[in-house]
Write a structure and sequence with these properties.
The structure holds three protein chains of three kinds. Chain A is α/β, with parallel strands linked by helices. Chain A has nine helices and twelve strands. Chain B is mainly alpha-helical. In chain C, 30% of the residues lie in helices and 22% in strands. In chain C, a hairpin with a 4-residue loop joins β6 and β7. The longest helix of chain C has 26 residues. Chain C is globular. The termini of chain C are far apart. Classes of the chains: A alpha/beta, B mainly alpha, C alpha+beta. Chains A and B meet through α3 of A and α8 and α9 of B.
Chain lengths: 328, 275, 529
Amino acid sequence: MSDRQPVLETKNLTKCFPADGGKTLTACDNISIQFFRGETVAIVGESGCGKSTFARTILKLHDPTSGEIYLNGKDITKLKGEASRLERQNIQMVFQDPARAFNPKMRIRDIICEPLLNFGRISAKEKDAVAKEYLKMVELPESFSDRYPHSMSGGQRQRVGIARALTLNPDVIVLDEATSALDVSVQKSILTLVVKLQKEKGIAIVFICHDFSLVAQFAHRAAVMYLGNIVELLPGENLVVGGAAHPYTKSLIESIFDLNMDFTQEIKTIPGEIPSPIDLPPGCPFADRCSVCQDICRKEKPKLKTVAPGHQCACHLVKEVSSMQNAS
Amino acid sequence: MMEKAIRFIKENKGFSILLALAVLILLIALLAPVLAWQDPTYSDMGSAFQAPGPGHLFGTDRLGRDVLSRVIYGTRISVPAALILVLAILVIGTVLGIVAGYFGGWVDTVIMRIADMMISFPGMVLAIAVAGIMGASIQNAIIALVVVSWTKYARLARSLVLKIRHEDYVYAAVTTGSKVIYILRQYMLPNVLPTLVITATTDIGAMMLELAGLSFLGFGAQPPIPEWGLMLNEGRQYITAYPWLILFPGLAIAIVVSIFNLLGDSLRDILDPRS
Amino acid sequence: MKKKSYLSLAIAALIAVVLSVTLLAGCGGGASKSNETLKFGCQNYSDSLDPSAMTNAAWACTRYGVGECLFKFKEDGSVVENLCDKYEVNDAKTEYKIHIRDGVKFSDGSDLTADIAVKSIKRMYTNEKDKKYTSTPSTILPEESIKKLEADGNGNIILNVDAATYLDVPAALANPFFVIINPDTTKDYAKNPIGTGPYAVESLTEGSSVSLIRNENYWNGNVPYAKLQISFMDDSSTKAMALKNGDANVVENITTATDLSEIKGDTSKYNVSEATSIRTGFAYMNQKGALKDADLRKAIIMAMDNDTLCNKTVGGMYSPGYGVLPDSLDFGTKDLQNLPKYDVEGAKKVLDDAGIKDKDGDGYREAKDGSKIELRYITYSSRNLQEFAEACTASMEKIGIKATVKATDADTEWNEMVAGNYDLCDSNWMTAQTGDPYGFLENWYGKSEANYCAYNNDQYNKVYEELKTEKDTAARKEKITQLQQYLVDDNAVLVHGYYKSNMCSQASVQNANINTFDYYWITNEIAPK
């Protein structure tokens, strides 16, 4: 068992939004998770499961409805104003759509240096040199410094996004589907760059992603979310057939299209549709669509429990294994 | 530099001509003491109501004042007043609109409800009420018109801000530690300003008319100030007998307002040709 | 079939009845009684017709032909019987026995009796004490001077007054404050006072119009029009336009000279009746401010080219003069001595000699003690006063005196004047409401509360007090001339001129004449041609 301190931790983090007719939309439901230095944790799930909301909440772009966020051990949940702004130096985000993540009227040099100027770490004179340094770091030519975002490709822009996220030397970087808008060939190169930088600087990476194969390649751990809940927390490489314990994760893995899959077999899909996250019923969120659902599943919400070393699962039907056995 | 300027003028003939005319009007205002041969308030009671002729190209009014000199001096009143008015509306409307659009919530609600209230009043009526309570003068007329006219700009600025408020790059500015003032200045304002400046330029003419209208009704400039709207009022009762008292100030208003209107239109054509 | 024929018979009968009634009705009355409507355009001076409410309401009552008084003024200013037909008075002029004309009915058919007349007059005095009402009949006939006022049972009013005070009782009773309104049958004084005049109110829309109908019971001859429609027009050009396009067939007081001359010029279409009124247009000079300096006042008056102002600037609506009383009244205006003359250089010299010079080079003179002179000149837009104010301000500019015109409305101007919040304040006043200017001259009596300009001349005060009891007409004239002379000598008042009243009508209307005493606008003499 590791006694490292998490660089980022959430405890019972909940984010709700008001919906029509006085109802409540629960986007994140009691999420407790830890992130450590030099480690990549992927947050996976289908659209609408709440992973993007989770990302924006830990970045304080939304105010949490309840629960706490700890950054380097400090409770930043209720911070406002200047105190909150200062904490932003420790956690940064790379946004999903490189076409929209940059001010079209700003040059690359200014985009990259903006965070540093915000905190007075460099002077205006130093912008040129600093921009070129970071462009080099993300393997882009120095001449890009003068360009505008629209005269670059998506992949190049995403590299700029990473450069921007790095400038403040944050402890945590959140990649919010940062590769989803890119070509497959480009995705890998971006992530390789990220991994390299992570090794050099020991950054904790929160990797929001819906692509299981990417996650399996790059994430140390993966958290599977369904309707705002983490239903399974497992090593990244376990996101393959036979590696997961939770019925939802298993069905997800099995329903993935893969060039190598056996096309003679029946294509398995998860029956039903994702229910609305508005006014969730008690019990397991997956109850309606689970093929092995029991009575208890509808009545009592399962909690995350350890089912193998480094593997937690929230399901009544999976046996807990004592954490004592995880000594390593 | 010169070549760029010449090329610009050739490509945008209409705008350049109108701009030159507008500058000419401003020059007239500036050089009024030189151009007008007589003090606009100098009255020679005995030569009242003279028809246009030698010595008084535009005739004289009921106190024997030279109408041409008064029309020329009128540029000093009407034009700067309209420009100040438009500038004030632009600044107030932009600030309130950006604030309402960016912060949302109760700030937005309060500002927009006040704007709704202002719009539900017929502008002239409210302006008259304000001028009536505070006393009639050009300054108060300007204040009155600012109070009723800022809403259009605020709404426009707000909607332009809302267009980009929830873009990722604005959120990126937040996450990278930008202060609110910085975001408003560097992100919101540049998105808002071009459209609003065009609107403002087009409104100069309309505002000039409103000021003249208020002065005509007695709620703006007071005698003996040579303001065109006031001159229309003073000449109104003599329209059948001494029509030049209305003709020349009326023409002045029509011409100057038209020039500024057309200038605004052609500015819009240059900056925003798609609309 | 049978039902149908009965029905058509009934309808035919009905039509026959209706037709005959209409024909019969049309046959009623001779050529002097028409079915036409007289459309009258006038300024709105009062929303109420209750004579107690305020002075202008009483005037509206008589002007619109609704109410009449016991006596009335003729064109030449003499007073004659009206609702009374004869009266007896003792030599001391303290005991009056006024006989009410027999057979006079109010518009609702009730009879006019001495008793009702007395009640009507007493109501005015009762309401005078009530703060809700602002009419002041005591300024015309002081209540404290009345020793006895009652009906004697024989159709007479007994009115006994104070021996000491000079009072012209018939002239006083001709004032609109003493209009006879039936207190027994009037239900709404403000909107429908029941009077004896040729027309009776049918409906009234405040600020907009009054609709009246012929008083079928009128005692003094035929009432030519079936209806009288009064529309309020506060703007002179509007009145002129209304007359031209037929919205009105008679309008009072067109004060825009160009409109008036145009209408006068077309005798085939319009009639114009003019009269020199007993109104003076003048500006009070407030001696509580910079104008306490006699040299300043003198110079200002000398700087005014009254001839040009009256004849050109306001297009002849006034005739020039320097005395506060118009020359249409016989109170010595023509005999005044040492009248000022228009002399700009002379005015400047007066100021220079007095030490009123421009010391700081801003183009305007400062007072003797060096303080800035900036005169506040209040005016309002009625009877050309605003044009005078602007012209006088421009004239003062020529001699280096700074003045600013503040144009307001009649109400505000009155309040500012009473508060003394002015240096110059324009007014156009009826100078002799009872034919005698005693009340008007009180404005300059040093001990009066109605003296709003702080003028105080002991000699003036002495002569004024003598006037109160002076009963000899010749002596009165002499004293009044003396008072005018004091005002001229002290340069106390900035007189613009004497206003000319007019009434304009379309050619289809005859006898729309304006009276010097403009208490009367609508009379039963106004008739279709």
